[in-house]
Amino acid sequence: MDFELPEELRMLKETLRRFVDREIIPIEREAYEGHQLKPEVRASLEDKAKELGLWKFDVPEEYGGMGMNLLAKCVVWEEMGRTIAIPTRGGHIFGPAVSPILYFLNDEQKEKYLHPVLNGEKKCAFAQTEPDAGGDPGGMRSTAVRDGDHYIINGSKRFITSADKADFFQLQAATDRSKGSRGGISTFLIDADTPGLELVRYQQMMMDDRPWEISMQDVRVPVENMIGEEGEGFKFGQAWITAGRIRHAARGIGVAERCMELTGSYTNQRETFGKKLSARQAVQFGMVDSWMDTKMLRLLVYNVAAKADAGEDIRYESYMAKVKGDEHAFKVCDQALQFHGGIGLTTDLPIEKLWRDSRSMVITEGPPEILRMVIARAFYREYGG
Prior knowledge:
45% of the residues lie in helices and 16% in strands. It has 9 helices and 12 strands. The protein has helices spanning 7-24, 39-51, 70-80, 107-118, 233-267, 281-309, 315-340, 351-363, 368-383; strands at 32-33, 36-37, 124-127, 143-147, 150-160, 168-174, 185-191, 197-202, 212-222, 226-227, 271-272, 275-276. A 4-stranded mixed β-sheet has the order 3-6-7-10. The protein has a 4-stranded antiparallel β-sheet with strand order 4-5-9-8, with no helix packed on it. It has a two-stranded antiparallel ribbon with strand order 1-2. Strand 11 and strand 12 (275-276) form a beta hairpin. It is globular.
């Protein structure tokens, strides 16, 4: 079994490393305006992404993109995870942010919704999470009731990133609450200006994100705006979130790398009581554990991505990667804060932001408690006797 990246991906990794080190890290503390990238910074980075040949790297070739496989995407996510200049959410600089759910559309839907997104003419947002249905989307209370050639949607959604910028939503609602995630959830394309759909309020998070709460009151959606068949919505949502979980894990590798770079350099210079911090066993053991665990995480992520590219089912392994990736990233960030002492708490260094972002990533797109519960089912099928 070959655990090395193919030559073209090693070259991609080196190119991205130089790009991040030379073009992005030097501006990371001046890149923001509030919680978003400054327009001129985004435009400059997008131009450089085009120069690198990475524009629309995650868009299939049939839609004008590069069509990178999941392993190649992991290389991009990993290297971009090393900088705080790109917002953890909504910070895509490689082309329009396209949810994989849009690729499940029929031809008419693609013409109206997918192609305008790919052309930069429209923006979309994914609306699944609810106040009482975050980690358990099967328990969502928003309903869609058939009424002739329309569905009537009522309910609310919470933590919807970029809702204020969206021209339309990919919104999930229960068409049969008794079935839950097993055939009871459907996905709809809803224009943002549809009567009854309202942005209620945004919430300032601990990271650079301002997701929105939205409400639906008797929102009428044409039947033809349903994606796929009734009851298939959970499957579509999971297709996106599975890839998202691998993205979490790949990002975790990059975060850990940056924190080790900073902490290794600092502890090898900083002296206390006549010794460098790097000479102290407590520091050495902490850094060694971080290094070993990062190497193991990278092997896990690359292996799972390669399996997905080979057409294998990675559901449970994507859960494992998400849990280990996010928890490891936060652990290394926390250690970096501790070993830097007071300076690590300041905004002079990127550690505090990496720490905040990494803590939030542990919760989103699958809390580890829920993912471990699901992984346990697979464990006992294999080892339960």
